[in-house]
Write a structure and sequence with these properties.
The chain has 441 residues and is α/β, with parallel strands linked by helices. It has two domains: 210 residues, Alpha-Beta Complex (Spore Coat Polysaccharide Biosynthesis Protein SpsA, Chain A); 216 residues, Spore Coat Polysaccharide Biosynthesis Protein SpsA, Chain A (Alpha-Beta Complex). The strands form two sheets. The chain has a seven-stranded mixed sheet, sandwiched between helices. A seven-stranded mixed sheet has the order 10-9-8-11-13-12-14, sandwiched between helices. Strand 12 and strand 13 form a beta hairpin. Helix 7 packs parallel to helix 8, helix 10 crosses helix 13 and helix 10 packs antiparallel against helix 17. It is elongated and about 75 Å long.
Amino acid sequence: MALHKTFSIIVIASKDEKDFSLLKKLKDKFSGHEIILAIDADNELSIDTLNDINLNINKLVKVPNSTRGKSLNAGALKAENNYLWFLHIDSQIDKIQREDLERVQKKQLNYFKLAFDNNKNTINASGANFRSKNFDLPFGDQSFLIHKNLFNLIGRFDESLKEGEDHKFVWDAKALGIEIREITREIITSARKYEKSSFWQTTKTLFKTITQARKFKQNKIENIFCFFMKDPKSKNSKTRLRETLKDQGLVDQFNLHCLNIVKSNILSLDKNGNKIVIINNSPNRHYIEELGLSKFSILDINEENVGKSMHEAYEICAPFADRIVLSGSDIPELTSKHLSDSVNYLSKFDSYIIGTKDGGYCCFSTKLKNLEAEFTRVNYSSSTVLNDFTKHLYNLKKSDFLLFDVDTLDDLQSMYTALKNAKMTKEQSDLIGFIDKRKYS
């Protein structure tokens, strides 16, 4: 059977797990899909067991000090296919068919009906299925199937939680208005935790569910703020400035100061009703972790063409919020107030845009849902980007000011003068101090 959707099947296992029979079943039944085992690094596998495992998987990911959230995220980070299927090692997939995977839609979070591997826990299974079907609150035991971009938009699993990471993930999805859909096929899971005291474990699970719902429930996301970011050490950033200054380290530090300004903006906008999404235009996320921003949603769009990158970010995010804001990360003058104002203008206009001195733009906000083609019809290397981008947009408000996009030494000097005469944030002041010390002002 030809594969129309290819999955990365992510299986997680604890440090005490000894039974890996699920892996061979997955390989036999779902050949052509990627199989990833994310296992606690302290699991001391024998040579024979490790050899058997490697025969049935594509990748082995060892997770230090693992929690379920860490293991699930570690597996997802290594996934190469567009769709993800999260499984626990004790899941039984006998009733699941290949065509079930084909039913997964790009903008949905999917899950299976739950059953236990004995006949004593039918009430528990019925309760879980009732909760899932009527309140859109499936358990992780029911396994989640989702497009990778949607998974990253939701924001991955919360690694700080020892339990309830599945519950929080679902609430995060609900805040975005994502459709949560049952696949009417049963996945069978182990009843081990119910064996000693079924009644007590059932009561405990119910109590946790109610407590977690109160903790994780959040307001609907109204605004998505997308920040396009790149590794500050990338030689593909500030190429003209690098060529002029002949000092790679200096430009790297300048870029880092710009990212610290962006970080300050992000933290200011991280409020109820807002969703922060980092558009990572680099091959890795190390710099995002070093900035302390890895808790936010991260979309990996390693696309050199600016228009295509913006198009993809817009296409992923726009369906799930009333308003979307796209902004650059190399505009030192751009503040969180500018970004907040860009949302406020949408009460009167369909779109709002902040232009730059070189004929481009650095921030675009809109409540329109059909703009995909607008981003790719523009030549972003020209000096008429702003006019070319906006000429097909109606009910648009242009900012009554222009900011500096620093590409050249002249831009840097002009930005320095403008910023020094403005009311600055701490991070902007740090940038000015950095420039003063190096006498490039």
